[in-house]
Amino acid sequence: MTETTTTFCRICEALCGLEVDVDGGRIVDVRPDASHVATQGFACIKGLNQHRMYASPDRLRRPLRRDGRSFREVSWQEALTDIGKRVRRIRRRDPDGVAMYVGTAAGFSMLHPVFAQGFMKGIGSRSIFSTATQDCANKFAVATHIYGFPFIQPMPDIERTRLLIVVGANPVVSKWSFGQVPHPLRKLRAIRERGGRIVVVDPRRTETAKLADDWLPIRAGSDLAFYLSFLHELLRLQPDPDPGTAPHLAGIETVRDLAKGWPAERTAAVTGIDAMSLRALVRAFVETDAAALYSSTGVNMGGQGALCFWLQEAINAWAGKLDRPGGVVVGQGIIDFAAFGQRTGMFVQPQHSRFAGLPTVNDALPGGILADEILTPGKGQIRALFVTGGNPLLTMADSERLRRAFRQLDLLVTVDIYRNETGELADYILPATSPYERPDLPFAFPLLMGMQTAPYLQATRAVVPPPGEARDEATIYLDLARACGVSLFGSRIAQAALEAMAAVASRRAGRRTLPLETLLSGVLLAARQPSFGQLLRQRHGLRRQEEVAGTFLGQRIATRSGKIELAAPEMVDRARSIERWFAQEQRRIGELRLITRRHPKTHNSWTHNIEAFMTDRFRENHLYMHPEDAARLGLVDGQTVDVTSATATVRLPVELDTDLRPGTVALPHGWGHQVAPGLRVASRTAGVNVNLLAGSGAANVEPVSGMSRLTAIPVQVRPAAGPRNTASWSGI
Ligand SMILES: Nc1nc2c(c(=O)[nH]1)N[C@H]1C(S)=C(S)[C@@H](COP(=O)(O)OP(=O)(O)OC[C@H]3O[C@@H](n4cnc5c(=O)[nH]c(N)nc54)[C@H](O)[C@@H]3O)O[C@H]1N2
Ligand SMILES: Nc1nc2c(c(=O)[nH]1)N[C@H]1C(S)=C(S)[C@@H](COP(=O)(O)OP(=O)(O)OC[C@H]3O[C@@H](n4cnc5c(=O)[nH]c(N)nc54)[C@H](O)[C@@H]3O)O[C@H]1N2
Ligand code: SF4
Ligand SMILES: [Mo]
Asked: Is 548 helix (H, G, I), strand (E, B) or coil?
């Protein structure tokens, strides 16, 4: 008998409400939840097809143990005991020798990251890495310095804004980042329908640019110059900060100094944006009360993400757009997360990496030096690595160097739903539940920080049972802690209590598990919210308090002074590099630069295993190039080319694309699955891994935030000198 139930998607930040039909423990149909209080009947092609991914014959059902060049299934007992033995040996010598990489999938589960961190706390290791230094650590770092807490992240008040400037983001495809915008397309269209404007600043005429009013084709990697001139022109029109905001700002003179000397004419050749267009944009920004300047990964990943974001936040504050209706607003979560951070010291006390002395952001080290931390001998050298819900060998910079480093590890364990490219190198692969197989709350950003344009709460049960012996990550880390002879969160009481709870719940469920719904209820209870059961009865979500504009300035700034520290020393120090950077950019104007590109059907590295998605045309990635560049280089559409960076060469076909700004080529990431026979569909695709081209090591890491440079990478393109879809690496 078919039963229909509501749940929500946990692939991206849109968190679309879904309605699923379940028959005999299998999902037979997925539809957007038309009655959802926020997402209003929107879902994308990935969300509507994810059950195919979870029902794939490639899903892990039992733990896998390396056996020479292949793997064999083993019992949980055997896997846990052996991992435990090996971790104890490494930890005894040096707890920091045990490391973890927390992937994107972890962020979309409420309990997964908490228990994974709890495990590392138990181990007593500081060697934690995450995806943040691939996508957004610049935002966290700057927010820590100027607002006093990484998760204070102003987001555009999409429902009311009348001028939205989008720099280096493509929300029509990505569905937004750093802010849950339910039904993202409708919300964008509504801005124009009510007479507002959207301006996109991007080297590609993106899907978002096509529905915007204006597209400013910026030269890749030059955003810092754009922000400097934006600030300069803003101060020309508005010499003093907004009077309502000024009392909450420290460092006003620093902003004045920073703005000096950057008239739009000075940067035009570097950004490719003429002075008149920029001035007109800044004028419109000043004249529109409900205006917001927003940026995302295209800026974050470009090598100057920290300075760019700092300037952006200064601009929004100076112009009086911060904390105002239709400007940028700071959400309120179900707890005072910033106060919690202050109390516990979590996220706000940076440590420094052993290699190159780089600061942690949100308690995580820069991914760009993971290889160095494995390869460099001495105290703190990483010997064991847990990869939880991620696929670093495809998604992190300098993949070949990282692969060689991973080969040197004494122990590599992945916790995943699949045997992915990283798993291929692992000693153990532990089978996790998919989102549909675990109860959950909306992930941390909306819940803890209220980063939602239409705040609501929702709970979901597991809608189908896990395959085979797959287990949720909370239970996996509880059992790993015991096997490694440590206690979760470093607390024997917590470990004992959770083990007792797991014993009871497992008896009831007939399989090993923690009582996940009870734990989630505990989270809600601690935050004085309705219980998990009560939320379940609100099948389409429960609306929360609406108005957040006007609740931030003077009330929730988490710095010691209670003011926005625009002159934070870390930022002022970093600003000293600006003139040198600019001189370099001027010399490099003609350089061909490689940018990122996402596709509606792929999600980082993990939706390439859906047969229905991998159609003929879409079985490989392409290097997108403007016809002018192709003509100059003597290339034609479909021709196989070699793309060479300072790090490697990849070989793939060219696709001509008039939407690109000339001088820019684009290459989607997440491909290069041929080395993963555990992914039957994906491994037969032909795409190449773009991250072979990105550099690693301290020189390739932004020093304030630890961000890797994954866009605006200088490359050369020439006709291929051999068979297609291959790669070579020039590193050491
Ligand atoms: N379909 C799909 N959706 C996704 C994902 C996915 O892989 N596929 N991933 C999800 C994840 S993990 C995240 S973090 C979010 C990210 O969400 P977004 O940050 O919106 O990411 P993108 O869609 O890649 O948009 C980045 C834009 O930056 C532009 N760009 C590249 N280089 C530069 C530059 O130097 N300067 C400027 N100004 N622009 C530049 C690109 O052309 C692109 O349009 O998306 C999420 N949603
Ligand atoms: N060149 C370039 N590189 C990029 C980017 C780019 O735009 N350009 N984007 C970057 C961005 S924004 C990000 S966030 C990173 C992503 O980097 P990663 O997080 O390392 O990579 P993903 O491909 O998202 O890997 C997610 C993994 O989680 C698994 N998984 C799915 N659901 C679950 C679950 O419920 N539990 C567990 N345990 N596992 C699960 C999937 O099978 C997959 O293996 O990559 C970055 N890399
Ligand atoms: S936009 Fe797509 S992937 Fe993102 S939450 Fe909605 S259905 Fe899921
Ligand atoms: Mo991301």
From this structure: coil
Q: Which domain holds residue 39?
A: 2-54
Q: Of the candidates 77, 122, 128, 94, which has an alpha carbon nearest to the alpha carbon of residue 486?
A: 122
Tens of pLDDT, residue by residue over 83-108, are 999 999 999 999 999 999 999 999 99
The verdict on pTM exceeding 0.85 is: yes
Is the CB of 174 inside a 6 Å radius of any atom of ligand 1? Answer: yes
Q: What CATH number is given to the structural domain containing 20?
A: 3.30.200.210
Contact indicator for 537, 221 with CB cutoff of 8 Å: no
Confidence of residue 1 (pLDDT cuts 50, 70, 90): confident
Is the distance from the beta carbon of residue 434 to the nearest atom of ligand 2 less than 6 Å? yes
In this structure, are 422 and 464 located in the same domain?
Answer: yes
**Around Cβ 126, how many Cβ atoms within 10 Å?**
18
Q: Which of 9, 18, 460 to mutate to test the pocket of ligand 3 (most atoms within 8 A of CB)?
A: 9
Best residue for ligand 1 mutational test, from 44, 598, 621 (most atoms within 8 Å of Cβ): 598
For 446, the token pair is: 């909306």
* Least distant ligand from the CA of 598: 1
pLDDT at 517 over 80: yes
By alpha-carbon position, which residue is closest to atom 47 of ligand 1?
A: 174
**pLDDT (mean) for 643-654:** 97
What is the per-residue pLDDT across 169-228, written as a single tens digit (0 to 9) for each?
999 999 999 998 988 889 999 999 999 999 999 999 999 999 999 999 999 999 999 999
CA distance 355 to 451: 34
Q: Which of 166, 174, 223, when mutated, tests ligand 1's pocket best, judged by the most ligand atoms within 8 Å of its CB? A: 174
Give me ligand 4 centre to Cα 194, in Å.
31
What domain count does the chain have? 4
Helical axes 275-287 vs 223-237, angle rounded to 10°: 60
Residues 384 and 470 grouped into a single domain = yes
Whichever domain contains 187, its CATH number is: 3.40.228.10
Is residue 146 assigned to a domain? no
Closest atom of ligand 3 to 43 CA is 7
